Structures are given as C-alpha cells and as structure tokens.
Fold:
Amino acid sequence: MVYVMVDLGIIITKPPVETNLVNRFLQIAKGTIENNKTVGLFLISDGVWLVKKNQNNNSFELLKNLIEKNVEIIVSKDHLLSAGLSENEIIENIKISEKPYSDLVDNVMENYEKVIKI
Structure:
C-alpha cells in the first residue's frame, strides 16, 4: 500500500448512525481541509459501516464530500468481511487494506502528523 503524508489522521471505530461523534470528527476533517491541510481516514471495527453505499445520514454525506476533496480513506478488509460487507457494497475511491493493523501502525507512526481516534 502506498502511504501519503497527511496533517491529520482520523481513526474511526464507531458506526456512523450510533453516535454523533463520527459526524463531529468528519466535520473536523472538513474544517482541516478548508484550512489547506491534508486529512486521512482509517476505518476499522464498526467504522467500516461508514463506507456502505446508499446511506441516508449526515455522516455519509460528509464522507462523500471528503472523497470529492481527495481525502485518502482506508478501510480494513477483515472488518468489512466481519460486517458482512463486500467490496461491491461500498462506495468508490476507498482503499482496502489487506493488512489493516500493520497499515494502521505504519500510518500512525510514519504518515499522520497528528492522530485522533473515535
């Protein structure tokens, strides 16, 4: 996997509809981009539900906006499978990590200037 140096890495582990935290952190990502900084999202655990196609919630709309702004979004393949989601059921322009824990550590240690996790 090719890594991109980013100013803010956000690790999302919560489902998008269960908590307003996901929405708030996506708002932070949007604000960071509006301040000419870069953002990367890493979705694991229940955070993978954020990339499921055809959702009708604020978090999904914010995510689509971030994709349009070329935010790198990485999702754990293992957690997609655990959630019962296939690659055909997720939105486009998402990077799927075959080795999520290794990729996550690499990003946190080498590529994310600052990191927040929810």
About this structure: Helices lie at 20-34, 58-68, 77-82, 100-111. The mean pLDDT is 86.
